[in-house]
Amino acid sequence: MQEGDLEIQVKTFFGLENILAEEIKKLGGKNVEIKNRAVNCVGDLGFLYKLNYSLRTALKILVPVLTFKAFNENKFYDKLFKFPWDDYLDPDQTFAIDATVYSERYTHSQFMTFKMKDAIVDYFVMKYRKRPSVDTKTPDIKFHLHIDRELVTVSLDSSGDPLFKRGYRREQTKAPINEVLAAGMLQLAGWDGKGNFLDPMCGSGTLLIEAGMVAMDLPAQIFRRDFGFMKWKNYDAALFTKIKDFRVSRVKAFEGKILGYDIDEIALESAGVNIKAAEMEDIIVVKKKNFFDSKKEIFPLLIVFNPPYDERLTISDDAFYKKIGDTFKNHYPNTLAWLISADLEAVKKIGLRPSRKIKLFNGKLECRFLQYEMYDGSKKTHKQKA
Question: For a tag on the chain, would you pick the N or C end, based on fewer CB atoms within 10 A?
Answer without folding.
Answer: C
